[in-house]
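Researcher: We're reviewing a set of sequences before deciding which ones to prioritize for further study. For each one, I'd like a predicted 3D structure that I can look through quickly. This is ATP synthase subunit a. If possible, include the structure in token form so it fits the rest of the review sheet.
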Amino acid sequence: MDEPTSTFSLLGLTFTWTTVVSTLLAMTIVVLLAVGLTRKVAIRPSRGQNVIEYVLDFVRGILGDQLPGNLARSLGLYAFTLFLFLVVSNEMGLLLQVKTGADVTLIKSPTADPLIAFTLAIMSLMIAHGTGVKVLGFGGYLKNMFFKPYAAMFPLNVVEQITNFLTLALRLFGNIFAGELMLNLLAQLAFSLNGFGWIAALPLEMAWQAFSLLIGGIQAYVFVMLTAVFTAQLSGQE
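Model: Here's the predicted structure for ATP synthase subunit a, in token form for your review sheet.
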């Protein structure tokens, strides 16, 4: 049975409160973290400044492994913001899942919703394609994307672009959704055995939660890394 949800309509479109509230909360957390950790920037950095500088250097390293300096710098702010948002979003459902009295989930990982995962994939690929046009010109971009290395490769290159989109979105969604689903199943197992289920379920729940936290961070890294890889491919920097 599907989990109860609460929806609303706006301009003919249907939205889920869970997705809207969770996404807004993730965005708020990212902004508060960024502002809070950089509020007092100094030559001798505080612990908070060290954390944000480490994350920034980490993201720069991801981009620098795939792109030349000028393209890595132009993509830097987007990649940094994307990485922070993904880390927060991926872990929210593991640490901050909230349900209402009607058993409607109000807060969970936004990236456990396929619409969010696909939206992020579209954003990243639009930036990758836009960078390709900027670097190669429109004609060069089309040739590089569809007719490389030979014109006969056109059908396979079209399939590759579709596959890139699906890979980027489904990998993120599948891993985060599966992690939350498993935690919920373990919790249901504990309650179904008249309280004694906690003896078996609690160690499994703790182990799976630790594993899911690791997976959430890895998926944020993979998403940003693939964004850089696709940008390199589409701008002829392979």
